[in-house]
């Protein structure tokens, strides 16, 4: 029986990795394209771009409620539904957005699927990991997704540079890739929890985890919204630039994510998140003030380096998931707590871009990234409060 269970778990992990590859491919198509799509097709400014993040991130705030409605299903089946919704939103963006209002509608549908799937990636990955190897497993998944996104970035770069590829084609390929991931998830064995799972879960014990998520959400949203916008509006960079930067970040990230997962297992979350925070301060200052350092034409190369560096640092978010796994009272706390963390993350993620757009308009984009650097400092102090004793470091698993 144990051998049968191990065989089934290996098969499920392979299918999960394969699903991750398809989702990585979709990411490689979507990420370098979306902001240029907004600029080229709808010609919006920085304030409108910041304001657009409110509806785009609203499903992230509501994810804990979406998860509450679906909590009777195993995680694998919830992930299947999420990616079906995500794929539908992508096809709508590509083919059914004749006006800005329709764009917003399909963007919200895409966002619902994307945000429901976010906490599930970590919880399913943990459930398919052996004790003591959670970071390693999540690192492997991240490395595969990163490698697959390389193909997507290549298609965007080559397609826009040499084949006059349309935005609709990119969104169609991305949508079909998410549907392929759904097939993999459908083939996985759904394992229901042996205990009743919470629809909503908010515990004082997890306060530091929630705070880390809030800080991550603030820092994340500034970069997701305004880092591409600086390159587009200040440095006049086309979609092919983002594809190339994605390629560099992807090639670097394949090994980085795998090593990061092992580093989390070896050195612990406190060390990794602290180092992430210090590096992020430097990235924020470099990105915001490269043009003020007297570098001339070399300034944009510093911005490129900071853009890629931030891409790599995003992978450190897996340390927050492994930290929660170590302190959780029960394996069944993992998915609802990850969902609650995502909801709290998006309380700031929905509002910061709007005020960031106003700050850019009134004082300049440099001050937007100065605020991001201050948030990174706050993240450092929060990381120094992380404590995990030996009893907590024995990983728990959660039923998928």
Automatic annotation (TrEMBL):
One term under GO cellular component: plasma membrane
Record-annotated membrane-spanning stretches: 12-30, 58-73, 78-96, 102-120, 141-160, 166-187, 208-232, 238-260, 337-361, 367-386
GO MF annotations in UniProt: transmembrane transporter activity
SUPFAM superfamilies the record matches: MFS general substrate transporter
Compartments in which it is found: Cell membrane
Signal peptide: none
InterPro entries in the cross-refs: MFS (IPR011701), MFS_trans_sf (IPR036259), Sugar_transport-like (IPR052528)
Residues forming coiled coils: none
Superkingdom to which the source organism belongs: Bacteria
Pfam families in alphabetical order: MFS_1
UniProt main location, coarse: membrane
Keyword list, A-Z: Membrane, Transmembrane, Transmembrane helix
Topology versus the membrane: Multi-pass membrane protein
PANTHER family named among the record's database cross-references: INTEGRAL MEMBRANE TRANSPORT PROTEIN, INTEGRAL MEMBRANE TRANSPORT PROTEIN-RELATED
UniProt protein name: MFS transporter
């Amino acid at each position: 029986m144990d051998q049968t269970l191990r065989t089934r778990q290996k098969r499920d992990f392979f299918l999960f990795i394969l699903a991750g590859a398809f989702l990585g491919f979709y990411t490689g198509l979507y990420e370098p394209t979306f902001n240029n799509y907004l600029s080229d097709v709808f010609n919006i400014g920085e304030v409108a771009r910041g304001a657009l993040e409110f509806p785009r991130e609203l499903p992230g705030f509501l994810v804990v409620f979406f998860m509450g409605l679906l909590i009777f299903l195993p995680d694998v089946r919830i992930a299947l539904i999420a990616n079906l919704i995500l794929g539908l939103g992508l096809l709508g963006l590509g083919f059914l957005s004749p006006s800005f209002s329709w764009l917003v509608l399909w963007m919200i549908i895409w966002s619902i699927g994307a945000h429901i799937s976010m906490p599930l990636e970590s919880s399913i990955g943990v459930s398919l990991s052996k004790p003591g190897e959670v970071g390693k497993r999540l690192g492997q998944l991240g490395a595969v997704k990163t490698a697959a996104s390389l193909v997507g970035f290549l298609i965007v770069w080559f397609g826009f540079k040499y084949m006059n590829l349309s935005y609709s084609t990119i969104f169609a390929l991305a949508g079909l890739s998410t549907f392929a991931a759904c097939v993999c998830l459908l083939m996985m064995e759904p394992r229901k929890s042996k205990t009743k799972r919470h629809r909503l879960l908010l515990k004082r014990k997890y306060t530091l985890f929630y705070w880390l998520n809030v800080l991550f959400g603030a820092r994340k949203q500034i970069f997701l919204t305004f880092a591409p916008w600086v390159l587009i509006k200040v440095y006049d960079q086309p979609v092919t630039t983002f594809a190339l930067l994605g390629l560099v970040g992807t090639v670097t990230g394949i090994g980085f994510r795998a090593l990061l997962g092992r580093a989390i297992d070896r050195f612990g979350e406190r060390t990794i998140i602290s180092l992430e925070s210090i590096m992020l301060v430097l990235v924020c200052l470099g990105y915001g003030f490269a043009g003020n350092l007297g570098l001339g034409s070399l300034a944009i190369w510093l911005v490129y380096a900071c853009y890629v560096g931030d891409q790599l640092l995003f992978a450190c978010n897996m340390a927050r998931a492994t930290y929660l796994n170590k302190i959780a009272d029960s394996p069944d706390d993992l998915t609802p707590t990850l969902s609650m963390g995502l909801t709290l993350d998006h309380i700031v993620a929905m509002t910061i871009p709007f005020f960031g757009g106003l700050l850019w308009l009134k004082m300049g984009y440099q001050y937007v990234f100065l605020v991001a650097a201050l948030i990174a400092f706050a993240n450092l102090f929060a990381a120094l409060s992380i404590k995990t004793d030996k009893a907590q470091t024995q990983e728990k698993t959660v039923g998928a």
